[in-house]
Amino acid sequence: MKKILLFTAIFVFLSSCSSKPSKDEVLLEEKIKRIENGLQPNLQINGDSVPNYRIEDRLKELGIPGVSIAVLNNGQLEWAKGYGFADLSENRLVTHETMFLAGSVSKPVAAFRAHQLAEEGIIHLDSNVNKYLSSWKVPDNEFTANQKVTTKRILNHTAGLTVWGFPGYDKGDTIPSLPEVLDGKGNTDAVRVYKEPGESWMYSGGGYTIMQLMITDIDKKSFPELMEEHVLNPLGMIFSTFENPLPEKYHSLAATGYREDGSEVEGKWPIYPEMAAAGLWTTPSELLRYVQEIQKVYQTQQNGLLKVQTVNKMLTSGMKNHGLGLVVNEHTFEHTGADEGFKANLVAWKEHPVAVVILVNSDNGSIVQEILLSIAKEYKLPGIEPMVRTLRIKSIEEREPLVGTYHFAQLGEANVTINEKGLQMEGAFAEEPIILLPETNTMYFDRENGIYFTFVVEDGIATEIRFLDFVGKKTG
After folding, report:
1. What is the DSSP string of 52-121?
2. pLDDT by residue (tens digit) across 350-378?
3. pTM of this structure
4. What gap in Å lies between CA 295 and CA 427, rounded to an integer?
5. pLDDT of 227
């Protein structure tokens, strides 16, 4: 009965009691239809016509089983809807109640408890986390002689820690304890300090796993239990859980994860003992309850479950636009997530009472940005724009100096050759050839995602290639 009453209260996109829908219901339905039929590719090339996609057609084209969307407007859940399949073999459809793994969107929710502990005076965000850890300690080394790993630095990824993310475990695997994960006895390297804390930014799921252990050492309860008590239930996220493996009582609601080739994830979904970093099971509507609370405190500057001072610090942008648990841009605060077989995106506007959560049960999350573009256009929201590139055809003679073999210290070797309109890159870090199209003589972009690849040319010959934070030296 509790569940029925809850969803009757929060889910506004339901059948009307009357035979004739109200004007507001008609307008909302029209709005949703425009969003559903107005998807456009994120990468757009100047001069090319821009297609419009229907969401159901796009799911099929991209090989994505299902997606769930929820939108907060004027501080309230305005609509939530599922599309496609939660499980293909069971012919089970996605609904607004379907649960998904949220990937790294787990991090800002887990951060909520760390901020509560700081407000209660139990921890200090700038103190050495080893002060609060009892079952395991961060090993000191030459990098921690002058600066320490702190909760604040874990939250904004400046703690100098290793292990970017976690692959999860399959059903039937031996699941390591958290200290075993941190010491490299699971399926990832040990989490260690590899540069001076506070020096620079590097994303670290390993850091959030240390924070998870710190919180459990303090609260003397399992992480799912303490998060339910202190965070999920107070926020009204009563059908979300950090429990891993996922308890059987949720299996009928859980989406099955799928690989890019359409195959099921082993055991239908992975298992994450690294719960703070990647283990939250939830729905878009439930995640919006977290967003609603943060957004309300920030926009009204009135205390809520967290104090105004705390939320303001959370949403202060630091290195690489990271705040204390969330990514903070000019117009939005947000976070993305990727678990094995799942993708997630949470976006909330700082100056508008609007937020969106999109969850997908596939490794292919390319539809997420297309949906965001359509929603931002419909609601006239800033900060979400397509990636626009300009194609300028170059002759073979102009492209020839860029051909060769490049060695990336982190990624291995890549071979660059001439392609029909640009260049083609093949290497150990790319499962399929990357097609690069020219924008200038030395700047090319990935035809699939628009990422820039910049060639450094000396005396008419390329010496290296740069993309994102990677540099490849030409070796042949």
Report:
1. -B-HHHHHHHHT--EEEEEEEETTEEEEEEEEEEEETTTTEEP-TT-BEE-GGGHHHHHHHHHHHHHHTT
2. 999 999 999 999 999 999 999 999 999 99
3. 0.89
4. 43
5. 98
Nearest to 212 by CA among 221, 202, 200: 221
In b/e form, how buried is each residue of 11-43, taking b as 16+ CB within 10 angstroms?
bebeeeeeeeeeeebeebeebbeebbebbbbbb
Q: Which DSSP state fits 231?
A: I
Report which residue type is found at 190: A
Q: How far apart are CA 78 and CA 35, in angstroms?
A: 14
For residue 127, which amino acid is it?
A: S
Q: What angle do CA 218, 222, 227 make, to 5 degrees?
A: 80
Which letter does DSSP use for residue 269 in this model?
S
DSSP β-ladder status, 387-389 and 43-45: parallel
| Per-residue pLDDT tens digits for 379-389 | 999 999 999 99
In 3D, which of 268, 272, 253 has the Cα closest to residue 337?
A: 272
Within 10 angstroms of residue 177's Cβ, the number of other Cβ atoms is: 14
- Residues of the chain with pLDDT below 50 are 1-18
> Which two structure tokens, joined as six digits, stand for 287?
């995640």
Contact 360, 368 (CB under 8 A): yes
Among 99, 69, 101, 72, which Cα is nearest to 289's? 72
Q: What's the pLDDT score for residue 19?
A: 58
- Identify the helix (H) or strand (E) that includes residue 466: strand 461-467
> Nearest 10 degrees: CA dihedral of 302, 236, 126, 152?
-110
The answer to whether the bond into 245 is cis (omega within 30° of 0) is: yes
Measured distance CA(307)–CA(56) in Å, rounded: 42
pLDDT at 324: 98
pLDDT at 6: 44
Q: How far apart are CA 182 and CA 308, in angstroms?
A: 34
Report the SS3 class of residue 354. Answer: strand
- Backbone region of residue 143 per phi and psi (left: phi > 0; alpha: psi in -120 to 50; beta: other values): alpha
Under 8 Å CB-to-CB from 131, ≥6 apart: which residues?
A: none
| Alpha-carbon gap, residue 225 to 142, rounded angstroms | 37
Q: Sign of the CA dihedral 177, 275, 318, 306?
A: negative
The Cα 473–Cα 465 span in angstroms is 7
The answer to whether residues 53 and 370 touch, using CB atoms and an 8 Å cutoff, is yes
Q: Residue 49 corresponds to which amino acid?
A: S
